[in-house]
Amino acid sequence: MSVLSAILLLLLVTICCRVKATTTTKRPNIIIILADDMGFDDVSFRGGREFLTPNIDALAYHGRILDNLYAPAMCTPSRGALLSGRYPAHTGTQHFVISNEEPWGLTLNATLMPEIFKEAGYSTNLIGKWHLGFASPEYTPTRRGFDYHYGYWGAYIDYYQRRSQMPVANYSMGYDFRRNMDLECQNRGVYITDLLTQEAEHVIREKAAANETFFLMLSHLATHTANDNDPLQAPEEEIRKFAYIKDPRRRKYAAMVAKLDQSVGRIITTLAQTEQLENSIVIFYSDNGAPSVGQFANTGSNWPLRGQKNTPWEGGIRVAGAIWSTQLQARGNKFTQPIYVADWLPTLAHAAGIDLPESSLQLDGLDLWPQLAGSKDAAHVPREILHALDDVWHVSSMLLGHWKYINGTTASGTYDQVLTYRELDDLDPRNSRYVVEVRNSPASRALAHFDLQRLGQQKITSLRHSASVRCGNLQRGCNPLVEECLYDIAADPCEQNNLIYSKQHEAVLMALRKRLQEFRLSALPPGNRPSMRQSDPSLHECTWDNFLVKQPGIVPLECDYHGLPCE
Ligand SMILES: *[C@@H]1O[C@H](CO)[C@@H](O)[C@H](O)[C@H]1NC(C)=O
Ligand SMILES: *[C@@H]1O[C@H](CO)[C@@H](O)[C@H](O)[C@H]1NC(C)=O
Ligand SMILES: *[C@@H]1O[C@H](CO)[C@@H](O)[C@H](O)[C@H]1NC(C)=O
Ligand SMILES: *[C@@H]1O[C@H](CO)[C@@H](O)[C@H](O)[C@H]1NC(C)=O
């Protein structure tokens, strides 16, 4: 046998066995349910009693509470980090977000999670929000690895009419809802949280019938605000259930969260009905902290954490989240290892048995599947997380071990305090039978089937108690506009004791400063581009379209509430 044929034979054997490995073991379905701008404390598994989220709580109690899940503080960087496995500073998304009228997107040379799963034989589906660019078609979801997209390209839309007006300059109202590349008119007027859920259920049933393994990202509009003239929207009958909440805005928000919670229950139920739950990994989390006040304020609560969306404080970046899968050996506990949204790509690839060409992907995320799936007490992986590196607004922040560093802040420090509190007067009447509510939720009914031990009252109560964050007292404040801040975030989750001046912490401070400078050298310039007149929906038949390639109209149309397509 010649050397050449030996090599060929070797190749054949390798190819044969690879293919074999992929077809004989059924890979898990991946379902990521993403909330938009939902607060850290707007899930009742952390102990809040103003309104309940029994389905999300069931996911957390039957699975694992992601106690230290971190995300960038805004939509575009958070979604970019999830899908690319890289820091926003490494994809040009480290500054603010992509506003609809701006001609840019997530760098095209990043390989995205749906491309990787598609390559491995998965059906890849995005239902809902994209927000990673649409100025030209190559930025849009179906050109970036998703086989199917049903939803919107931009930052947000109206919950019924699917149109949006950007809060800048004088761009017109535009319609933003598509099935793949085509405008989608059907079911206009249906409440979007229900509509997106229904579409996700349809996809789940379709994949079950076709015996296809799938990756599904259900990227909700809830609980982001809609347009300025009517920011908080929920069906009247849902709002009525929260009549005991005095603040009418918070009452609507509670209804928006309730719809989102029902969505989680419906998805899990559909997975169970199609006998796919056992072979699925289900993750729920919010893309960033809630904007309690200011732009896009939705009344969401990050209590007791400081700050909110678009700030470097824990309220912006430590998000509510949970995971469930039969592959998790230990369930019904808190996963306390810090985990960052860019970790999902390598972590879920591992769970799916996909080998990653790590060098070409240049991942920042870590594979934490062994820790997640492993026993309860698996050792923490010591790690760093680059939380922010925005040299336009001069905000940088990172975690090294349990040390958190902040230098600079947003909005001149307006949102640096604790902006919310726990409402003790408006209590959900269901709270008195909380355990029953959780156990009777559709999610719990489906998940209980796979429990290692029955989820008892005591277990629920103690998990709920242990997931509450408790703050110490304010010891030494910090103003990041004029000084650097250093916190022992494990001991001081509420950022109340600035340790920067203590000699004892000099070494860790030097290490943090040094790492930040190193990240500056590897950062891409921010991809932000100035607004472009030719993007105006009035020049594109009143839609948000691929304005870099589509010929704009000559005469702007009237795009008020009635001039839009699909009327
Ligand atoms: C990705 O594209 C940017 C420009 O958008 C470039 O600066 C960067 O070097 C590229 N990175 C890789 C790995 O090709
Ligand atoms: C919006 O403002 C810009 C400049 O301020 C102007 O050139 C443009 O004509 C305006 N567009 C509309 C639709 O009013
Ligand atoms: C579904 O696909 C798997 C391989 O992915 C195969 O083992 C199984 O037999 C298929 N089931 C049906 C009902 O076709
Ligand atoms: C902290 O912020 C100041 C002001 O923006 C800047 O000059 C300095 O380089 C920053 N330090 C680090 C370590 O990023």
Automatic annotation (TrEMBL):
Leader peptide range in chain numbering: 1-21
Cofactor(s) needed: Ca(2+)
Family matches, as Pfam families: Sulfatase
GO molecular function: metal ion binding; sulfuric ester hydrolase activity
Top-rank taxon: Eukaryota
Family the UniProt entry places it in: Belongs to the sulfatase family.
Protein name: Sulfatase N-terminal domain-containing protein
Species this chain originates from: Drosophila willistoni
Lineage: Eukaryota, Metazoa, Ecdysozoa, Arthropoda, Hexapoda
Gene that encodes the chain: Dwil\GK11604
